[in-house]
Write a structure and sequence with these properties.
single chain; mainly alpha; 90% helix
């Protein structure tokens, strides 16, 4: 059960790539729904989109839980490295936010 940290990180990266694809799929469905409504589509099309959005949301929630478990394990196995990474990301975020505020 002792996995390499890079394998856990690869899993997180893969989960986020899947998450990005799923979000793009949801956006596409909502766009298609808006077009269908503009064209006067019937109520069943709207229900199908809602069902699909619910299914995708469930999938995203499951992947988020998986990613959280992987990150938690990574922090437990390498707390100092995790803290340094978190600090670095926070610092970069602050720099980007300050630049954007200008």
């Amino acid at each position: 059960m002792n996995r390499r940290p890079t394998a856990d990180l690869d899993t997180v990266v893969e989960d986020f790539a899947t998450l990005r694809r799923d979000i793009a799929e949801v956006v596409t469905h909502f766009k298609d729904d808006a077009i269908a409504r503009a064209d006067g589509a019937d109520r069943s099309a709207v229900e199908q989109v809602e069902d699909e959005a619910g299914r995708i949301y469930g999938k995203l929630a499951a992947k988020s839980k998986r990613s959280a478990r992987v990150l938690s394990r990574q922090v437990e196995e390498q707390p100092i490295a995790s803290m340094l990474v978190a600090f670095g990301l926070g610092y970069l975020s602050r720099l980007l936010m300050a630049r954007r505020a200008r």
